[in-house]
Design a protein that fits this description.
Structural class: alpha/beta
Largest sheet: 6 strands, mixed
Strand content: 25-35%
Shape: globular
Oligomer: single chain
Number of strands: 15
Radius of gyration: 19 Å
Number of helices: 9
Distance between the termini: 11 Å
């Protein structure tokens, strides 16, 4: 089978499309014929060797966690899913023609494989950090870097929970944020005052790692009311960095419910082939994404 792999840590040029042995489903797993794989910042951070302490990597290694596809192997002890079922979920080395998933759910009606591949990690992250920051119905949440996948999920989940959201993003994404129910403003000079004019901030999330932790603490009045998923230096200012995932099976159940109720939709901004994985990483690292990027198999 074809698979994207890297044999050394480094830039996007270390990614290569290779012929590899097919993986097989072990106990508690399913294998899918991959139709699409989500492109996440985690993917290029692992490729660069940034987060080895939390996620040891044995080289050569595959790329990718999220995927959608059709079940073609069911491991021992697995029930509730059959060969031929369309599913989406989390596994390993998902930029490939076949991948093994350790957590999955049946795809909701009306969802394409490309769309489905973009949900697992971003929704798990969104659910986790909303919980960790402690924001409640009737309060206001500020989201810095709100137009990407996690931001798109946070805005919609917060709205579903009765939380008011202020989102910052580039000028081109202001209408996109408003369409997701947020009060929108641009980042850049004067952004703190623009946020203040939109209302009181009870909690804040840093999704972009753009060096705004001090300002988020200033706006909330308390470093305990700020969570970052993108700035590794956040703890130096008393702000929690959230990088360890919670329960993916629980997140997938909630994802299916939100999508089925019409409360969550994350658009696919751009699709790439397996051979274009390096370009996908370059674009993901550059930011300014509106929704999700996926690799189509």
């Amino acid at each position: 089978m074809k698979k994207v792999s890297f044999a050394e840590f480094g830039g996007p040029d270390v990614l290569h499309l290779i012929e590899a042995e097919e993986p097989h489903a072990g106990p508690g797993q399913v294998r899918i014929a991959v139709r699409a794989a989500g492109v996440n910042p985690f993917d290029w951070r692992v490729r660069e060797g940034q987060i080895l302490a939390a996620h040891p990597v044995e080289l050569p290694a595959g790329v990718g966690q999220d995927a959608s596809g059709v079940v073609d192997e069911v491991g021992e002890g697995v029930d509730g899913v059959e060969i031929g079922d369309p599913v989406f979920g989390e596994g390993a080395s998902t930029y490939a023609e076949f991948a093994v998933l350790s957590a999955w759910a049946r795809m909701p009606e009306g969802l394409t494989f490309e769309e489905a591949a973009g949900y697992p990690s971003v929704v798990e992250t969104a659910l986790r950090i909303i919980h960790q920051v402690g924001v409640r119905s009737g309060q206001t949440l500020l989201v810095s870097g709100a137009s990407g996948g996690v931001g798109s999920a946070v805005l919609q989940i917060a709205r579903d929970r009765g939380i008011t959201v202020i989102g910052t993003a580039g000028a081109a994404n202001q209408d996109y944020l408003r369409g997701l129910g947020a009060f929108a403003t641009t980042y850049g000079e004067g952004w703190v005052e623009r946020v203040r004019q939109l209302g009181r901030v009870d909690a804040a999330l840093d999704l972009a790692g753009s060096g705004v932790i001090r300002e988020l603490v200033e706006l909330t009045g308390d470093p305990q009311k700020v969570i970052s998923i993108a700035d590794l230096a956040a703890p130096e200012l008393g702000v929690r960095f959230s990088g360890v995932a919670g329960s993916m099976p629980d997140a997938l159940i909630e994802t299916v419910g939100l999508i089925s109720r019409g409360r969550l939709h994350i658009p696919v901004e751009k699709s790439y082939t397996l051979a274009e994985a390096a370009a996908a990483h370059i674009d993901s690292r550059a930011g300014h994404t509106r929704g999700r990027r996926v690799v189509v198999v």
